[in-house]
From TrEMBL, chain A:
InterPro entries recorded: P-loop_NTPase
Protein name: Uncharacterized protein
Lineage: Archaea, Methanobacteriati, Methanobacteriota, Stenosarchaea group, Halobacteria
UniProtKB/TrEMBL annotation, chain B:
Documented EC number(s): 2.7.7.7
Catalytic activity: DNA(n) + a 2'-deoxyribonucleoside 5'-triphosphate = DNA(n+1) + diphosphate
Protein family (similarity comment): Belongs to the DNA polymerase type-B family.
One example GO MF annotation: nucleotide binding
Record's keyword terms, sorted: DNA-binding, DNA-directed DNA polymerase, Nucleotidyltransferase, Transferase
Protein's name in the database: DNA-directed DNA polymerase
Organism domain of life: Archaea
Record keyword Transcription present: no
NCBIfam families assigned to the protein according to its UniProt record, in alphabetical order: PRK05761.1-4 (NF004418)
Domain DNA-directed DNA polymerase family B multifunctional: 338-700
Amino acid sequence: MNTSRQQPRVELPELDAGLTLVDIDSDLGVTPVQSLLFDCVFAGTGGAYWVDAAGTVQTTRLRELAPDRRYLDRIHVARGFTAYQQTSLLDRLAGEHVTNPSVVVATGIDRLYRDSDVSTPHAQELLVRSIAALARVGRVHDVPVIVTRSRDDEFTEPVVNAAKTQLHCRDTQFGPRFTDAAGDVDALVYHLADGWVQTTLAYWQEVLAHRAQMHDAPVVSEETAPQIS
Amino acid sequence: MVLTVDFRSSGDVVHWALTDDGVARTVHEGYTPTLFVGDTVRNLYGRRGGSTPTPPDRDGLSDSLLELRTVLSGQDAVADIQCESHRQTFRTDPRPILRIDAASIDAVRRIAQRIQQFNHPAEYTCYNVDITRQFRYCLETDTSANPDQSVRSLRSLTLSIPAHKSGHASLTHLTIDGDAAGPTPEAAVNAVDRSVRERDPDVIVVSTADLIPLLFEAADTHDVPHFELGRASGYTKLAGESTYTSYGQVGHSPARYTVPGRVVIDESNTFFYHEAGLAGCLDLVDRAGLPLEELGWASIGRVLTALQIRAARDRDVLVPWQAWRPELFKPAATLDAADRGGTTFAPAVGVHEDVHELDFASLYPNIIRTRNISPETVRCGCCDSDDVPDLGYSICETDGYLPTVLGPLIDARSSIKDQIEETTDNAERERLESDSSAIKWILVSCFGYQGFSNAKFGRIECHEAINAFAREILLDAKTALEDAGWRVLHGIVDSIWVTPASDRDQRSLATVAAEVSDEVGITLEHESEFDWVAFCPMRNSESGALTRYFGKRRHEDRPSAGEVGDAIKTRGIEARQRSTPPWVTTVQEDALCVFDETRSPDAVCDVLHRHLTALRRGDVATDDLVVANRVSKRADAYTQETLIVAALRRAQHHGTSLAPGQTIRYVVVSADGHGIDRVRLPFEETQSYDVDWYEDAAIRAIESIVSCVGWENEDIRQYLADTTETTLESYLGGE
């Protein structure tokens, strides 16, 4: 392990093709998922496709996190505001509009299906259909598909069953840490050895700037090069 | 021409129309409302969806539609099934789909729900399912929704009980067109029965729809023979009460009732009747084609939807049931540019002399009209042009349907405004203002409605495009005004405030406004001239609040001492807020008048001091201290023991439960006290009140005014303390 002050270890879990369910400690918000998304964009040649049903596509945060604004052109977003729109969007991912993705993200996959205007059996069917659509996109394009849910309960059991990997991102005293139940993944994103916790935004900005340079140096401009000390 | 339409359980429909001396009743036997079922979600909105959906070609019905046809044929709810061609979206051609005629009005939704449960969950798209029944009847039978007042004017009757009363006993407080009906429930019911028979009203306005079952029950209890409210026997409950959330605000919609042959308007559940009166409602019935009773309880969105449904039908486009159509994928960079909302310039906090306000007339509707913005034209997919500023969206060259919906309303409003200017007849002016107000609300809301997820034909990209144009227009206007020697003090969405820039010559505002209007294609009007305008800071901040200001209109005199009238324009301060007790409003308006005369915070605080002295002496009537808050949830759902909770519990204690969306009124008698004893309800006629609580409220209202000259809450309190001392000294004769 390289512990030099110039080259700190910055780790994000490497995602396999197919469905990965990520449960995140609520204190951390959606930023860990946005970071995984950026990381796949740095490493790949295509873009990211993000279908949001949780109201979490806030471009302010994406803009602040992006080591270079040009990355925002490679992230394609669409928001479902009703359970029906979300179902359409997840199916649309399998159509010709989506070309050469590096990663697909679906945040809050269960949220709109819990709305009161959808009956429970119908909601369950729509959820299962949406999970199947996502799994298909992962297969067809051979890319990671990141899924988050708004609640861990019986309703979202089908997501757990369909996921190849289930990650948990926890807020630890040394910084955010991704683990999986099988013990295959254990990534402490960036070790805050001195216990000094920076603002969440500054922390992830540094992490991403570092990852971008690691994968994709030519795109990262001089001014935004990592300043981790 | 129809007054109202009744749906009988037999399936027959009764259609009522005005005649010279009464009404004509026509029975329409075997009316079968129609719904449609079309392609799978996948082929229209899913993987074959997009700007222009590309469903696979077919001549007849698809296999799954054939399968559905077989399943539905012969079911009781279904009267007939045919194959017909219609357009399922604005961007697809007519295709063969299933037309289902339902056996009755109630069967429509039952059939749609069965279809939803059959096959895969997104196998079918349904159309023309959730259209309100009278509106549907008018559409499908090509009947005008207008009652045609050229035959005769409508007759109406108003029945009211006080808001806090309920149950049979409340009938002793019943009024008929303002007159007491009778001292006992029995006498009241008899009086209503007599009035209805004598007057034969076309419209019954009730203070609450609950009166309808209540009157029938009471008639039963007291054996009033043949009691009726309608032109045939009985009444119908159309919908139960419910609570809903819209734009983050909780609303309450009470149960709805109707009676045969007459229109029922529930004053506790109507927007347009309050805004525009019966005349304005009828004007809107004519424009939107939504029958009067349904317009009575309709939201603005529902009227806008009715207008859109008519325009869609003109183009053979069906009305989708569920909101399957999603937004298109867009780069995060574009969303970042699109998500910025309307433009505002931070206001220059403080008092400014010689200020002019300029407004773009109906900016958003006019952007839609002049820029051809419509759900099927924005990012159309067929035109490769960069039309929307900053976003790069294309707008189709083909005329959109939304401009054709709004165009006539924009023209009507501006012609009504001209007529208001010209008329010398007060009754005529009042009627014109009602019409104008009803249309105004539709125009104001059409922009926001485009961004509403469940809007039938809404589209978030239209919302984004309108915003982008509005930003560009406001910024261009700012530049033009600055180039002409004016200093821009504030700007928000469609309004700009300017004052002459020091050390510069100004070109006339009329000339600059005309140039901007020409350039933009939308009129920039010189809205108001002010002797002075004060922009307030946000509380606990030095930055300007966007919508808190007040100013003295030039050439407008105040009606008399202490009255603000139209002479002082206020926005966002306490006097404008519904919840503010009348006494606090009076304190603030008195202070505004003194501020206008003196511009002195000391003089304003003297006004406050005078009112506080009266308050402490107990001289303020408790009627003037009533706080009116909107209830946002049920009493037990609040987590903090606020005054609203105390008032809600007190109302419950008196047997009245208020639902979210309703308004609770109370007087604060002991803010620091316990439970329901902290407040009194208005009908309890309390004589006492919490002096300190109202003093704080008055000080905050004064702070809103003097904050624009840099005074804070502590400065006011210090001044009051000094004044009290001075007064005391003068009382004691001084040293």
